[in-house]
Recover the amino acids of this structure.
């Protein structure tokens, strides 16, 4: 069973930064792409970013380009999401996810059904 533990969320003021971590448990991340998603109250889950198994290629939602950076350390079995210049609209529960069906981020990487295994999420609140 592929499991993740997300951490690093919290309350931050607009313009601030947070770094989220997604630690794999019970399996090795090396062969899996990882997606980050977020879900605000009353809204659908949306894709934020994706990184290939090698880490050589990444994708971002337009709303976070230039502010968020996804990275991975396969030696630590962990994927990170560095979030800078945070805005109130970045508020939500952030999830990491993966699929064993591919090693890359597909053209539909921002679609939740592209992934099979999910973490429990970590809350990010951007407010003054």
């Amino acid at each position: 069973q592929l499991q993740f533990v997300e951490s690093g969320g919290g309350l931050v003021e607009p313009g601030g930064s947070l770094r989220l971590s997604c630690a794999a448990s019970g399996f090795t991340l090396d062969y899996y792409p990882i997606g980050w998603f977020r879900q605000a109250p009353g809204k659908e889950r949306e894709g934020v970013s994706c990184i290939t198994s090698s880490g050589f290629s990444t994708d971002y939602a337009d709303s976070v380009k230039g502010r968020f950076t996804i990275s991975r350390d396969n030696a630590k079995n962990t994927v990170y999401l560095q979030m800078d210049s945070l805005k109130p609209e970045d508020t939500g529960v952030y999830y990491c996810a993966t699929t064993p069906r591919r090693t890359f981020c597909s053209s539909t990487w921002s679609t939740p059904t592209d992934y099979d295994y999910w973490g429990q999420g970590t809350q990010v609140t951007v407010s003054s």
Summary: The chain has a mean pLDDT of 96. The longest strand covers residues 18-25. The two ends are 40 Å apart (CA to CA). Residues 78 and 96 are 11 Å apart (CA to CA).
